[in-house]
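[Q] Does anyone have a clean structure-token version of this?
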Amino acid sequence: MSKIQVSQPHSVSVDEAKAKVQGFEEMVKKYGVSSSWSGNQAKLKGTGVTGSISVQPKSVDVELKLGLLAKAAGVKPDLLKASIEKRLKAAFEGESA
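[A] Here you go.
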């Protein structure tokens, strides 16, 4: 099982950060991964993938665990991590402090 952890710092309110994360959620839906929010935490679940999104006052933290099905489907953890980092960085570019 591969584990991916990404932390994106931000300087906006928690509510604004949650709104910015919605673009990331749309991206993971394309891969059959659903999210369910409870407060400032979202659980992620899909075929061969589990994880979470946590919106903190100064960062957004994403953690994914890739199971054997994800590996069998050809998911490369390093490329997935780079894609998540890129999308989160883009979501928070140009934020107002």
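[Q] Thanks! Anything notable?
[A] DSSP finds three helices and five strands in the chain.
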